[in-house]
Specification:
mainly alpha
Length: about 70
C-alpha cells in the first residue's frame, strides 16, 4: 500500500486541513451574517425606527376647549 508523500508529515500524519486563516475567515463571515440578521430583524419589527424612539402622539389639550 502506498502513501501520498505530499500530504504526509514527518511522522506520517496529515496536517490539519482547517488552518488559522480559514478559521479567522469563518469567524469574520459569521460575525457579518449575525450583524446583518440583527439589523434586518430590528428594522422589520421596529418599522425602521430606533427602539427607544417614542411614537409621535397628538398633544393633549389642557384647559377649556372651544367648540
Amino acid at each position: 500500500m502506498t502513501t501520498n508523500s505530499e500530504t504526509a508529515g514527518p511522522e506520517g500524519e496529515r496536517p490539519p486541513s482547517f488552518g488559522i486563516g480559514n478559521f479567522l475567515f469563518t469567524i469574520v463571515l459569521v460575525l457579518i451574517l449575525v450583524l446583518l440578521a440583527q439589523s434586518m430583524v430590528r428594522h422589520h419589527f421596529c418599522g425602521g425606527r430606533r427602539i427607544n424612539q417614542p411614537t409621535p402622539q397628538t398633544p393633549i389639550p389642557i384647559g377649556p376647549q372651544q367648540h
